[in-house]
Structure formats: structure tokens, C-alpha cells
Amino acid sequence: MDKLFWLRAILLRVDRKSRTELTRNTPMENRTVARRQKRLVGIKRWSLVVVLAWAVCANAAGSAPLQLAQQSKSSAPERQRQLETQAKKEGRVIFYGVSADMDKLLGAFRERYPYIAVDQFRAGGAALTSKILNESRAGKVADVIAMNATPAWVIMERGLVSPYTSPALDTVREEFRSPNNLWVGFLHYLLIAGYNTSLVSKAALPNSYDDLLNRKWTKQIGVDQTDWDWFQMLANVWGEPKATQFLNGLMALQPNVRRGHTLQAQLLAAGEFSISSVLYDFRVKQMKRQGAPIEGVLLAPAVAQSDMLLLARGAAHPNAAALLMDWLLSKEAQSLVEQDLRRNSVRKDMAKEFEQMVKGGPVQVMSPEKLGPKSNYYIELYRKIVGT
User: Fold this and answer.
1) Alpha-carbon dihedral of residues 43, 46, 50, 52, nearest 10 degrees?
2) CA atoms within 13 A of residue 208's CA, in its CB half-sphere
3) Domain extents for the chain?
4) What dotted CATH number matches 189-304+378-386?
5) What's the pTM?
6) Taking 50 as the threshold, does the pLDDT of residue 239 lie above it?
7) Which CATH architecture has domain 74-188+306-356?
8) Do 69 and 166 form a contact (C-beta atoms < 8 A)?
9) Contact criterion met (CB below 8 Å) for 221 and 253
10) φ, ψ at 34 (rounded to 5°)
11) Residue 261 pLDDT more than 90?
């Protein structure tokens, strides 16, 4: 409010100064100066109007995180009551995401809260990031954004994300939470090596990434054109020299290089090659249920990809946004994540199948902080080695 007071005072001062300058001139001087002064006053006044409008928007944008933080201090039932009351007044929530599988989750949210309209927009990571950046320049924002680590880092660096504080965060595994509450994972999947069960016996399975460099896999291994984030995670754990040496060794086997993990899985099941360096665990499980001769093996270091939620800075519907984010972390939604989407839950009290796979070992989660700062460097390095 202090900012608005002083901006109004400046606006009045400009008007008074302009009138004073005109009265000090002679009538003849006024005729030559009046038109120029009028244009100057108009420019100044409209400039200040724009600044005033910005200040109003900035005050509104800054109030949402504070309001949510205050609500989080209330008891869980009271906070829920406040959110539902205010969200009902807001009447809608704008959701931007990259996953094609969100329809079921958002549909269930609509059934749970029929008084909140959900406006959904979906695009790939790069396209969605571009849309968010362009719209932010025009003063337009979403409420909730769902994307993975690298694009999340880009919008976080631009200051387009507000902290999300909620008791629901206490139910989430530590590795799927931001240290400063700027993001929280709501589903995840493991990156595993895949193999064709008709072509590879269990005795011949790799037990480590080094085993993938065995010459018996020459021209029999699949590699994805865009696995630079996986490569960067290996570099984070092993160091860049070892990760680079490994990737060079993999390329020396003359692998079948294709784009897209779904295509990789399909070609593997069809017998185009015997083994694949990286597949998504949910895709392997899905195809296996459908009768495909495909299976996966988890190699150390275990790496997980997470779809994460971010609260947009300046969200026009902050209570509906928080209600949606809370619900997506609830047992109701996380059960749908496991049963319908066949992804892994991020909750501490769920994801039994995930626990069985990792066997209590550490999991390296792709996060904005781990990937973002050097993502461009590793993208270029991966492309150079893989030849894409």
C-alpha cells in the first residue's frame, strides 16, 4: 500500500508542476509550449498508470504465497475448510502439464470438487516452457504447472514459481520434495535396462552398467537419442570422466539408436535387438501384462524421473491451485497414480512395488537442482557422443 500511495503522490506532483510551468510563461510562449507540454504530461501520466497497474498486480501476486503459508499453520481440517470455501469463490483452476495421462486424475478431481472448473493445457516440455515464458511477459499465468526437472528449472530461474506450503508435503518421500518448497513430485518412474526374454537368458543378464559394455551386445543394444538427463545423472554420481567413458564404450558397440522410449520398448519386444540401455519401468510392466516378451532390470545407480507440481507465481486462483495440489498428493489420487496410470506413488505409506524393486537402496531422483544448472552442457555432450 505504501508503494501505491507514493505513486499517486508523484502523479499529482506531475500535474501540479505542469500547470505551474504554463502559468509562468507569457501568453505568446504558452501558445508554442502548450502542445509540447500537453504531450509530455500525457506520456508521464500514462507511464505512471502502467506502473500503478503493475504495482497492483505485484501486490496481488505476492499475497497468495503469504495467504497459503498462513493457512498451513491452521489445523488440517480448518485449512481444508478455508481452501474449499475460497476455492469455491474462485470457481476455477488453470492447469498446464506435459503428461497425456492427466485426464483421469483431473477428471477425478472434478468429480470430487464439481464447483471448480479445470482448464487444462498440455504440450511437450519445450513448447510448454516457451508458452509459460511468453505468457509471463504479457502478465498471463497458469495456476498449477506439472512438468519434469529441466523445464521446471527454467521457470524457477525466471522467478515464475511461488513456494507451496501444505501439511500434505509431510506425506511425501524426502527425495521427491524441494528443499525450498518450489516443487513437489506427484508421480515417478524408474529408468531401467530392458531385455527381450526370448533372446536373453537370466544367466546372461547385466548386473551393472559396466556389463552393458560387454562385446556380446555389439549391434544388439538399443540407445535413445535423448537420454541426456540419464547421462547427466550418471555423471553426477560417477563424475563426468567415468560417465563419458561409459557412453563412449556404449557407442562403440554400434547400438540401434532411436528416438522415444515407447518405440525402443516396441522394437525390443519385436526382437530388433536384445537389450536396451534405458526404458521406463511402467512401459515395460504394461507391455509385459499384454504378453510381450519383455522384462526389466534395475542397475545401480538407480535413477528416477519425476513429474512435479509447481505453484505459479501470481496464480489467479491460489486456493483452487493449492486444493488441487493437495488432492494430487492424497491417497485417493495416489491410488489412481498406481492403479490407472501405473506410475509409482511419491507417498511414504504407498509404493510397495517400488520399494521391492529398489530393495531399500538409494534412488537418484532427477530434480531441477541436479539437472538444471548444467543441463545444456550435458545435452550437447550427449549429442556429440551419440551423434544426434
Assistant:
1) 120
2) 3
3) 2-59, 74-188+306-356, 189-304+378-386
4) 3.40.190.10
5) 0.81
6) yes
7) 3-Layer(aba) Sandwich (3.40)
8) no
9) yes
10) -55, -45
11) yes
